[in-house]
Amino acid sequence: MVRVGLLGALLVTGGCAGKGETRFLTLQSAAQGAGASAQEPVKIAIVPFDDRRTEKGLLGQRTHLWGGVTYFQVTGERPGEAVAQALANRLKTRGWRDRAWTVQVVQPGVAADADVLISGQVQELSAQAKSRAFSTVITTASKLTIQARNQGDASTTTRMVEGGQSRTVFWFTEEDVQELLASTVQDGITRFLSDTTIEQRALRPAH
User: Fold this and answer.
1) pLDDT in tens, 37-71
2) Would you say residue 2 lies in a domain?
3) What is the residue range of 108's domain?
4) Helices marked H in the chain — which ranges?
5) How large is the average pLDDT for residues 149-172?
6) What was the pLDDT predicted at 30?
7) Which of 124, 131, 146, 176 is the most buried if burial means most Cβ atoms within 10 Å?
């Protein structure tokens, strides 16, 4: 009887029916620390990325064991702005060579006092979860094109970064999706930083 009761509790906890609610996720990584007190003198401005996803709107959904779904959406419902802010937050704390940089997010068409202007496109940003007996499988994916324009000589550097992650959890919480999606985006930003460098107040390819 104890085993039967435990089995029922696990199934109810892990697979209750979805009610079609929407859960909002941030792309900010919990691992990001506070910025250093002394920032690099190079000024960087970031424009919200263009949303070029084939399916615009929601990021994805969780399919519940007993039927129904819960939807996922980025906080603010603007993936391009969320990605730009995630990049800005990363550069402010540990950008190139793990140093802090002077960064601001500006709206398109607004004149920015910056040495480097970064823009980009979001081709893919998704989060999915599928619950089954005793586990939930979470998958996330990101595909970004990041372009930097140097104000000094008008040169540009463009990089495309993409990736995905998967995790299976026994006890599902929405924080699991949150952490995996943020980690996926941060991995893409890390690859962008490793492929580029700052030299003479300009962003250049690292190789």
Assistant:
1) 567 789 999 999 999 999 888 999 998 877 788 99
2) no
3) 11-205
4) 2-15, 79-94, 174-195
5) 95
6) 65
7) 146
Sequence-distant contacts of 61-64: CB under 8 A, at least 24 apart: 61/128, 61/129, 62/18, 62/128, 62/129, 62/130, 62/131, 62/136, 62/172, 62/177, 63/18, 63/129, 63/130, 63/131, 64/15, 64/16, 64/17, 64/18, 64/131
Assess if residue 3 is contained within a domain: no
Q: How far apart are CA 173 and CA 47, in angstroms?
A: 33
Q: How far apart are CA 69 and CA 61, in angstroms?
A: 6
- For the entire predicted model, the pTM comes to 0.86
What does the block give as tokens for 145? 């094109």
Q: CA 106 to CA 22: how far, in whole Å?
A: 28
**CB–CB of 120/160 below 8 Å?**
no
Phi (first) and psi of residue 124, to 5 degrees: -155, 140
Determine, yes or no, domain membership for 178: yes
CATH number (domain holding residue 180): 3.40.50
In a domain, 5, yes or no: no
Task: Enter the tokens of residue 16.
Answer: 């209750």
Q: Count of domains in the chain?
A: 1
The model's pLDDT over 66-80, given as tens digits with 9 standing for 90+, comes to 778 899 999 998 999
At 3, which amino acid appears?
Answer: R
pLDDT for position 24: 86
